[in-house]
Design goal:
The structure is a homodimer of 229-residue chains.
Chain A (H helix, E strand, L loop, with lengths): L1 H10 L12 H14 L1 E5 L4 E3 L7 E7 L2 E6 L5 E7 L4 E2 L10 E4 L3 E7 H10 L1 H24 L4 H15 L5 E3 L4 H8 L3 H13 L3 E5 L2 E4 L2 H5 L4
Antiparallel strand pairs in A: 1-8, 2-7, 3-6, 3-8, 4-5, 4-7, 9-11, 10-11
Helix pairs in contact in A: 1-4, 2-4, 3-4, 5-7, 6-7
The structure holds a DNA duplex (30 and 30 nucleotides).
Chain lengths: 229, 229
DNA sequence: CGAGGTATTGACGGCTCTCAAGTCTGGTGG
DNA sequence: CCACCAGACTTGAGAGCCGTCAATACCTCG
């Protein structure tokens, strides 16, 4: 999928070089401003980063580990909106309150940036303003792609999820998932049983292998992509 | 839902003639710039406004009528991302290409604004820059809400859809839907048969009445809200 | 080695899709 | 003004996919 590329590229994971379709320098210089304002903070497994409805004081960039954003419906079900991997930014809305919650998935380190500082900077530096807009638009595109997933079959959802994670992580065929089956289920709008059964089906079909439950090897990407959008 | 309110307010509801917010109100000067750049264009029923993958030259604001954005999956299914009613803006992404298609639902009039002009203006006028960001963030929030719909039951999806349309249209109990059952189905990730059956169920349960197939009366909002998020 | 959380597997049921009639509605032309 | 037609909508019957409930296996950490 395109959006993950865009997001990763634009935010420039320190380890990854930049390549992008927006202006080559505007993203980078804005980003350096972003990083200059940030303070690293550590979080433990399942620790809350912010809660639904809380004032949106900060914006976050993952340094190491991973985070999830989610919303709990009135019937108790949890929908995960997104997973955030190193280099990616979250918590950036326009209102003064978050409209979802965020947690660290495992032991993680985040760069924490004061929202007001970013916005103040955007008033004078239009590169920062453009960065805020770009980040929000990339998030929009990501959510739109995610929405398309939710109307597909279980096999298609899981296959797309694996391909997406492979692209965003090492871009190797071996994926070490930071999240549990329950997280995957809540991200894809399925149950853990269906996730588990589907992974078994894909393994039986020789599209993947699952050496341990957190490690998945894509042995036949073409078979997976056949299920893709 | 909050976002529709925010969006409507920000863009000036059609009940107020568009020309009025060119008034030198400093808080809305960004919008007046937006409107000053726009040219009204007429579209006929089902006419394409832009196609998936086309260069994103323009941004659109509905004056009268309604529009839908959608994406066609490789299996031929169509997912409608959003409906746009008078006063609402669409077509605003950050890349230089649209990543979905847009059509007029019925005979419609749109204000068409050159994207490059908006972006150029944002370089010097940070209120315009803030407007672009705000519009994008509101769209993001709308899509996030939409995503939550797609994991719910058919009854809940239809009930939420009706409440949403009621809020965005007259905010009366009588809704005149601009779109067909097929449009609703593709918006909610259901089939037309399920839409039809669900409306019948809601009517039987005395939550709504359906005098004609495009007109729906909310006779018991509390019953509908019980199915809400 | 034991315990508790996590993941897998199985049986069954329900919700929604599919396929297939019917019915209504809105627009057109006589 | 009315009859007619095509598309849109409704309703029904059956099937399939996924959710639920339950039991078992696995893995991690004390």
């Amino acid at each position: 999928m395109l959006m993950q590329n865009a997001q990763t590229i634009s935010l420039s994971h320190p380890a990854k070089p930049l390549r992008q379709w927006t202006a080559p320098d505007s993203g980078r210089s804005g980003l350096s401003a972003f990083e200059a304002l940030g303070v690293p903070v550590s979080y433990t497994r399942n620790e809350e980063i912010f809660g639904d409805g809380e004032p949106a004081e900060y914006v976050y960039q993952v340094v190491s580990g991973a985070a999830r954003t989610y919303k709990v419906l009135n019937d108790g079900r949890r929908q995960i909106g997104a997973f955030y991997l190193p280099g990616e930014v979250f918590g950036l809305g326009v209102g003064d309150a978050h409209h979802y919650s965020a947690e660290a998935i495992g032991k993680s380190s985040l760069l924490v940036v004061k929202r007001s500082a970013l916005i103040a900077l955007a008033e004078t530096d239009h590169k920062v303003a453009h960065l805020l807009w770009t980040l929000t638009a990339q998030e929009l595109q990501r959510v739109q792609e995610h929405m398309l997933l939710l109307i597909r079959s279980a096999q298609e959802r899981v296959a797309c999820f694996l391909l997406e994670m492979a692209e965003r992580m090492a871009e190797a065929d071996v994926i070490d998932l930071p999240m549990s089956r329950q997280d995957i289920a809540d991200y894809l709008g399925l149950t853990i049983e269906t996730i588990s059964r589907t992974l078994t089906q894909l393994e039986t079909a020789a599209a993947i292998s699952v050496p341990t439950c957190r490690r998945i090897v894509l042995t036949n990407r073409k078979a997976l992509k056949r299920l893709h959008a």
